[in-house]
Amino acid sequence: MKTMEMTCIRCPMGCRLTVAQDGDSFTVTGNTCRRGEEYGIQEMRCPMRTVTSSVRVEGGRRPVCSVKTAENVKKADIPAVLEAIRALKATAPITIGDVLCPNVAGTGVDLVATAND
Questions:
Q1: Is 50 helix (H, G, I), strand (E, B) or coil?
Q2: Are the C-beta atoms of residues 117 and 57 closer than 8 Å to each other?
Q3: pTM of the entire structure?
Q4: I want to staple 105 with a disulfide (CB 3.0 to 4.6 A). Which of 50, 84, 86, 98 is the partner?
Q5: Measured distance CA(86)–CA(64) in Å, rounded
Q6: Judgement on whether residues 56 and 40 belong to the same structural domain of the protein
Q7: Kind and range of the H or E element at 66?
Q8: SS3 call for 36
Q9: Which helix (H) or strand (E) holds 90?
C-alpha cells in the first residue's frame, strides 16, 4: 500500500489530505469537500498543473506577454514546456486567447496569451 500526504489546492480551505493507494483503489481522508478527494486521487495517479509564464514579444508595447497552458499538463512535462516557452518569440499584435504555440512541447495542449499587446 502506498500512502501520500499533501495539501489540497483546489479551494481556499487547504485541507491536509492523506491518500492511500492499494492497487487501483484509493482512499482519501482529511478532505472537507468532493474536490479534495478528486485532487488527491489525481495527484497519486498523474499530477497535473497549469503552466504560467511569459513569452518574448517583438514589435509590441512591452518586451513580454503573459501566457498559460490552455489546459493542465503532466507535472513531469513542465520542464519541457518551460524550455519551449523560453525559445518562443511572438510578434505583436497579440490578443488574449491567441494560440502562441499549438501542442507546446508535444503535450497536446496549446499555449495561449493571457494579455493583449
A1: coil
A2: yes
A3: 0.86
A4: 84
A5: 11
A6: no
A7: strand 64-69
A8: helix
A9: strand 89-91
Inter-CA distances, 74 with 2, 38, 77, 78, Å:
20, 16, 5, 7
Mean pLDDT, residues 24-44 taken together:
95
Residue 93 preceded by cis peptide, ω within 30: yes
Q: How many CB atoms lie within 10 A of CB 113?
A: 20
User: Cell 516557452 sits at which residue?
Assistant: 85
State the cell numbers at 45.
495517479
Do 68 and 99 lie in one domain? The reply is yes
117 touches 82 (CB < 8 A): no
What is the CATH number for 72?
3.10.530.10
Half-sphere exposure of 53 (CA within 13 A, CB side): 22
Nearest to residue 58, comparing CAs of 94, 90, 30, 32? 90
Q: Cell 503552466, residue?
A: 51
Q: Write down the pLDDT at residue 2.
A: 93
What are 52-90's pLDDT values in tens digits?
Answer: 999 999 999 999 999 999 999 999 999 999 999 999 999
